[in-house]
Design a protein that fits this description.
Blueprint (H helix, E strand, L loop, with lengths): L8 E4 L3 H12 L4 E5 L12 E6 L7 H10 L1 H4 L3 E4 L3 H9 L1 H4 L3 E2 L5 H8 L1 H11 L6 E3 L3 H7 L4 E5 L2 H8 L4 E3 L2 H10 L5 E5 L8 E8 L5 E13 L5 E7 L3 H14 L3 E10 L4 E8 L7 H5 L4 H9 L14 E3 L1 H8 L11 E3 L8 H9 L11
Parallel strand pairs: 1-2, 1-4, 2-3, 4-5, 15-16
Antiparallel strand pairs: 6-9, 7-8, 7-9, 10-11, 10-13, 11-12, 12-15, 13-14
Helix pairs in contact: 8-10
Length: 378
Amino acid sequence: MIASSTPRALVFNCHITGLAVARSLAAHGVEVSALDPDPRGLGQASKAVIERHRCPNPLEDEKGFVAYLLDNARHFGEGAVLFPTNDEWVLAVARYRSQLETCYRVPFSELSVIDAVLDKRRLYADAHHLGIPIPRTYSLQDPRATAKEIRYPAIVKPAEQRRFYDRFGVKVFRAENAKELMRFAGEAADLACVAQEIVDVPAGGFYSLCSYVAPDGEMRGAFVGRKLEQYPEGFGTGCLVIGEQVPEILDRGTAILRAYGYHGISEVEFIWDPERREHLLLDVNPRVWKWIGLPIASGVDLPWLAYSEAIGRGDRAGALRDGMRWIYERDYALLAASRPLFPASGDVVNAVWDPDDPGPFAQLIKNEGPAGKYYCAC
């Protein structure tokens, strides 16, 4: 445990992901404040959070969000550590890093690196040059030529997911033929997209390298998780994940992070292609993500590693406990109504339920009622 006089942590968009971050840091004695435009986030109901504040949404008012942080820096205390949980929060902090670093600690890479890893066009080109396999991917600079060449079904995929989702209500467009691909490419032309052939991923074929890399490039903690179930099916988010260490994914994920000089917490996503018998690079998320509670519980406490580095301690992960499972109770239950699922058995980490911290689960139930749902792209 560390003394309460150490810097506070600020968790933005404090929902499921923010809940895991808050619980991790609070267990180490860190005071956590939750900042969010919407008070219904599950993490805000946790006893791990000492304060809850409504702040501007950076997607709608980025300058207002940054001004809010600067205006309240004295209240949050000198050198508070920032933990954004979605891309738009990461980008807002990165864009105004020089101003924010006068009063806060930012435990991840600068804007040029963040922009590079989030740009799917550059990511896939660089992965190809590094010899890291990717799904068959095409430029949309000439949609007509791509529409003729690509194999269907295919997807149109954005470089920056949140703006795409807010406009269209989906994470990707699925095109069954050339006419559909041309139409989708035109509708999203200003959002910098790529076209990609759909891989027939088998059940349980989604993997991620989860890590914290220090500013000097040292991998302080690494963990590979395998997504067994996701909701909604197809292009949803994980609701059942198991720890399963795969050396090839560790090597390839590490290589892409080193190529960009990225430091901070990240999730590097891969899929298994049974046709090519390869793990293919899919995405790099330069931030915390929905099921980060699994590596935390498995001994790779990524939020703490980032925080400890930010305050000058530089801790490293200890022994890794493999084979634990993480479950987001709500989505897993909804999915189970339609078909048999991978079992949520053995050593299980609940995303929300904790008998010593019941507030988030109560908020989860409340959000299913007239109060309405909390939106989160996680």
